[in-house]
Amino acid sequence: MDLKTMRTCTKVTVVLLLLHCHTFGAEKQALQFIRLPTVVPNPNPAAPLAAVLSYEANQDVTAEVSLTDGTNRWSVYFDEAKKIASGLPVIGFRPGRNHQLTVTIKNSAGQTLSVNGLVFHAPNIPTDPTLFPRIETRTSLIDRVEPGYRLLNPRRRVPQGAQLNEEQQRRFGESFGMLLMVDRHGTPVWYYQCESRIAGFDYLDNGRILFVTADFRLVEIDLLGNETRSWYAAERPQGYAEDSEDVPALTFHHDADLLPSGNLIALTTKRRRINDYFTSETDVDAPRQTQWVMGDRAIEFTPDGRVLWEWDAFENLPVRRFGYETFSNYWKRRGFPDTIDWSHANSITKLDDGSVMVNFRYQSAIVNFDPADGKINWIFGEPSGWPEELQSKLIRLEGDARWPWHQHAPVFTSQGTLLLFDNGNYRARPFDQPTPVAETRSRAVEYKLDLEKMTARQVWTSETAEDRPLVSVAMGSALELPETGNILAGYGAVFDPSRINEITWSNRRGFNQITRCVEYTRETPSEVVWELELKPTGSAPEIGWNIFNTQVVRLSAR
């Protein structure tokens, strides 16, 4: 064999060897289940409608779980590694029904592998009237309803005079926390229960939920109800919280947000002893006295509890400008005796420009400030009673539109407008005469702000001339929906419209409350396309249900 022939044979041998190696490698890397998928009931009783999916693949894969109960079809997607040791949360199951599941995994090369025939029977929801509200929904224009599930936080209460003393009523309400997800028909598809009432919550991009509890904690859970992280106010009356990060704060209340940086912002409080302070909101001549006054403090802190900045309402707002309900025993019921409620913030938002927006319910004002130096940029709210040094910060409302009163949940929309839920309570500050309850209307409302001219004009409201008299005495939310542009309003604690003429601001605690979530078109006049109501349950006592806020969650639900 000559040299040329030897070289040719060598090349052929090398090519064949490389082909063999490539083929062997391809066979070795074929996508396989090492352990076939299984779906089992969630072992955590806090989220009983969820199930746990487990499997193991020989490669890194994504997964799609397609589900049906024979009527509804939906999918859940996971971007996970090949080994799922602790399992993945699957939700969307309708109570008491059998569901069929198909699991499809996919590798980076686009190769897929499916297993079908999995079956899961979802448990029923509780029949105990103290543990679950009665849900009713009405849909007017189904083709215009935002896709997805509705996430809300039912809170239970009994009215005064329900054969429970004040402490029993307080404990009944504060010892129960719930998050509930329903489909557009009002059917529960997921819920979570804990032992402390839940205030503001937020469904996060990572599929977890962050919420604030009545015992002054911030808690993050996954959809199996497992606590993934938590923080507590180190100075709270309840003291130490096990397995939780302590943050130097007196309370956590109403609202907190997880920032893109991984830090958190939250509402907390400070308590001050103030001389010669008011003792009445109806009698201007009532004797004054030294009072413990609770004011709000906004903070940003790292996940390990280190505070980066704080903003103190006592240092920046006029403490003697106060509103109706300052003497409502709000903080007394939460472990701070002889303490009145001055500013009562209920939401905090860090905007894209780095400024922070805080809503003060009893001030009927939204305040925007720079956390770097604490200086106020602007104030949007009813203009009476502000001191001279803040007059230049007040935004003027143009036209014949009315100011919001005791409002909740201000947020800037995709159009740059300011959207909020206007409870409309009182429509006055002490010592002016409040608007009667029967003439009050709660609403979602939208304003266009011009921060150069320091003006605002109303551009949309949910109110129409045919509206039923919905009066939300507390809580509430308004949210722009991403696909339809509709507005979802949560009417937190609503008086029974049939008894509205019996209710006054002084006797209101003796009446039960319901709640409504209403989806409006963003037209003028607006139309209602979807509505949910939580009805009272049980008897002796009858239990009322309300919510703090509501959101839409997209899990490819349809």
Q: Could you explain how this protein is built, in words?
A:
The chain is mainly beta. The protein has 2 domains: 33-121, Immunoglobulin-like; 134-380 and 397-553, Neuraminidase (6 Propeller). The protein contains 3 helices and 38 strands. Strand 14 (209-213) and strand 15 form a beta hairpin. The longest helix has 26 residues, at 3-28. It is globular, with a radius of gyration of 28 Å. The model is unreliable at 1-27 (pLDDT under 50).
Globally, the shape reads globular
Low-confidence stretches: 1-27
CATH class wording of the largest domain? Mainly Beta
Whole-angstrom Rg: 28 Å
Give the termini separation: 73 Å
Main beta sheet, described?
A: 6 strands, antiparallel
Report the portion of residues in β strands: 35-45%
- Count all strands and give the number: 38
CATH topology of the largest domain: Neuraminidase
- What is the percent of helical residues? under 10%
Derived structural class: mainly beta
> In DSSP terms, counting alpha (H) and pi (I) runs of 4 or more, how many helices?
3
Task: Tell me the CATH architecture of the largest domain.
Answer: 6 Propeller
Overall number of domains: 2
Mean pLDDT: 92
